[in-house]
Give the backbone structure.
Amino acid sequence: MEAVLHKTRHLSLSGGSVLFAVLAVLLFVFPLIRLILLSLTAEDGSLSAAQYEALLQDPRAGAAIFNTIYISVSAAAISAVCGTATAFLTAYTNIRYKKLIEGLVFLPFVIPAYVMTISWTGLTSSGGALTMLLAAAGLPALDLYTPGGIIAMLGICHMSVVHVTVIHRLRKIPVEADWAARTSGCSPWSAVRKVDIPMAAPAIASGAVLAFLADVDNFAVPAFLGISSNIPVLSTYIYEKVISFGPDSFAYGAVLSVVLSVIALAGTLIAARLGGRTDTGEGGRESRDVRIAFSPAVRRTVELATAGALIFFSVVPFCYMAVSALLRTFNFSLDPADMTLENYAFVFTNDGIREAALNSLFMAGLGTAACLALGTVIAYGIVRSKNRAARFLEGCASMTYSVPGIVLALALIFYWSQPVPGVTTGLYGSYTILILGYATRYMIVQIKNSATAMASMSAAAEEAALVSGSSFLRMWVKIIVPQLAAPALAGSFFIFLSAFTELTMSSVMSSASTKTIGLAIFNLQQAGDYSLAAAVSSVILAVMILCCAVRWAFEKRKQ
Amino acid sequence: MSLVIDHISMSYGKTAVLHDISAEIGRGEFLSILGHSGCGKTTLLKIIAGFVRPTGGRVLLDGALYSDPSHSVPPEKRDMGMVFQSFALWPHMTIRQHVEFPLQCRAKDLSQAEKDQKVAHALEVTGLSDLAGRYPDELSGGQKQRVSLARAIVSGPALLLMDEPLSALDADLRISMRKEISRIHRLTGTTVIFVTHDQGEALSLSNRIMVLNGGRIEQIGTPEDIYLHPQTKFIASFIGRCNFVKGDWDGDVFHTREGKFVVRGAAVADAFRRDHICPIRPEQLRLSGEGDGLAGVVQEKQYNGREIHYAVASGDELFTVYAPAAENYAIGDEVYLQCR
Ligand SMILES: Nc1ncnc2c1ncn2[C@@H]1O[C@H](COP(=O)(O)OP(=O)(O)OP(=O)(O)O)[C@@H](O)[C@H]1O
Ligand SMILES: [Mg+2]
């Protein structure tokens, strides 16, 4: 009896292996291969490097490559400096309000980059409050529609990436390492300079590389700030090519995508090589001892300066955006006579906006559900059955997450509209392709989340249920689902918010009837309707805050 | 001239960790601070090092005020070196760089040749000369602790603080490192404050031992003093093993109620007299097959090479006796306990 049970389970698992392997190849690997093949295909379908030759002749492509690297490296440097500074202050000093400061660091990362960008363009527009302030001080206005503007925006948005990487490293450096330096005659600051910074350097470097990858991947910021001012980067240039529908535009887009992926891959390889001697022999213990104690006066100044700068960068613009969407004109004023609710009314009455919001809700919802279902099954395969095919799938899924979004979108378009040469599915421009897109992009997030949750669950309970005669399905429903629900849904929450507000993939995947909310804002901005774009962004922001508040309240109640 | 710890007390918020600690440590002395986990040893050392400020009392070195509740000389300005239980090495530096580090910070006016000579000396004293080019992750635990020691002594500080420096090492290594530390202490002549929870280390290394219990000094004295003349029941049972015989004191003479067991103990502390007990070390007891003494039965027996350890039941008490291997009794034998 026991043997029979084992045998059937074993058989069904090997069936599972085949399924995992097939899914991995069909959903995650083939689209990327298809993209590479397309970049090597001539108009008549034969293999050729003609598109790559065209790339060499194209000065705009050269400019896009240069800009991508130059902008991303500079932005990563800003993120590295700011992220390391906030990480250092929160990990080592005696400042207060650390929770608030960390929250402010993460805010620009959580909020869609286009909302951030719109809010800043409002503040710095010719009638914006910041411009007026600067003018009053006799300073010239800030122009965000420049490489510098793009660099600053990206630098702020991705500073949290460096912050998290560095703060854990800093806390893992034992406080005794500092004390040993102090008792050797070193002042607290030299101890930081000579001991902590060198020990944290590999983490700072890998945080900077991660920020670089996020910068390369970003579409919204250069799209909002660089298209109108003719500063192409690869992600926006691919977008321009694809929507131009020229004769070779898709194939050329594929070539650009390969170039962009190579840049990203180079970054990843550099990150993998950064190691250094950091083993402190202390294991993973994190220490929260104060290593730099500011005097009360200095501490107050540091707190004010840090929180003030962060609030200025990531709270003030949003508030300004929400208020300026109430204005009739572009010139900032707080006079009730200049105010109108028209822009907000537009958000709730315009058919296009409503349709876009419903589209996003529907597609992000289904995409999230697909991730939740499949991702959890795959996680079970990885954690419990130690299935090699499931591990392989995990690897493939992390590939589609680390490839730049616009590249993945293009790959999925080619692949799903023509999975095999000669067979057209007509999926291009449908809801299905975007849902597939979200599932392909975010699957790894759900796999990782469910796997972490599952690894902390005891396998004994499941085995007990199986031994006591429950069927495999009942075991899932009765034992696994209840334990897994909360942590797995936390992953889904992140996926849903990302998919609901994303712009990169839908910018090339959406058709007129499957427009997303991000795309609607993008179109408004491109058409010069700042107030409307600001109103929609403010409403999105309000919805996101509401979602997070509900989730927070939910978690509070559970404890 | 010396280190003076003057009525130090310390509390974190409402929890008092140290109460009224006072001691004067002479130049070149080796003082161990001994106590159970959580009794405040590290806290006291942190106060001496200047990492925390006491909530009461003062610390002075050679007459200069180091710490009081409102004033504290920062650790880098104190003339001392420190060794940590966790070694606290810097993974990005070679062994030589570790040893050079304090000289770069402290001895700015030394010539390069003098610095090199000091580094070479510290490396040699700790037996690290051949390993100077290695990184910490290429060393064994014992070698790492030697690096930590070399770094602490290279600038010739007046005071060397060690917080359980041997606790992270294997048992064998601990014993051989004791000898090293003792040798280095003799060689350098610095004042050492050595925190440990291992009584063997404290007894074998120190000139004096300070025993802490619940943040108070239970007793401070030479190892012999602490071992032979414990002032409290805590000390007597914490340092080595001790039997407590119940009975009455009559001047300097102790006897059990029935008068079978008599001790002449002029040096026994008042605390024991008040409690009507007499502390007797296991090796101070003698077993005999007949005659006078406290009657008992051998319950357990452990052969230990040089001597045999017995557990002898007498009434409802259990006595521990260490007897020479020549005097051999079997379990179940009726014996009589006497004081040697
Ligand atoms: N920063 C702190 N805040 C509050 N309480 C503390 C702090 N540091 C230490 N304590 C408390 O002070 C007491 C003494 O701690 P200490 O580290 O000095 O003990 P110890 O004798 O060194 O122990 P061990 O042998 O385990 O190292 C402990 O009860 C500890 O919980
Ligand atoms: Mg301690």
Observations:
- Chain B touches chain A through 30 residues (CB under 8 Å).
- Residues 241-339 of chain B form a domain with the OB fold (Dihydrolipoamide Acetyltransferase, E2P) fold (CATH 2.40.50.140).
- The radius of gyration of chain B is 24 Å.
